[in-house]
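A further point concerns the way the authors explain their paired sequence and structure data. For illustration, here is how one protein appears when written out as sequence plus structure tokens:
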Amino acid sequence: MKTLKYSRQRESIKACLMNRHDHPTADAVYASIREEFPNISLGTVYRNLNLLVDLGEARKLTFGDGKDHFDGDTHPHYHFVCRCCGAIQDLPFLPFSDLETKIQPYAPGHVETHSIDFFGVCSGCMKKESH
């Protein structure tokens, strides 16, 4: 495998992603990174985010809003997605460690991992609706 050349931009994109817990889109990462690298292109941010995903250093999430979101936390965990404001929050709940084993007899192939996302209305939106 070819060795990956060090990139200050990629390291900055990775650091930005690791310090955020809002599961940003590439556009949001781009807006943050432009402060440090004013000449960086959106394409460079996209390529580097996808490279980080390919390297297993980030996760790409899709929640049906037509946008890819990125998560710097690659450990197994679940998400809560607000159907009103679109906020994505990590849930402080340990994943079901034996779920892959339990579902395996019903799967048409070998189960390696799982992903579960919960959708609803966040407390902030519930407060807005009640006023």
About this structure: The longest strand covers residues 59-62. The mean pLDDT is 91.
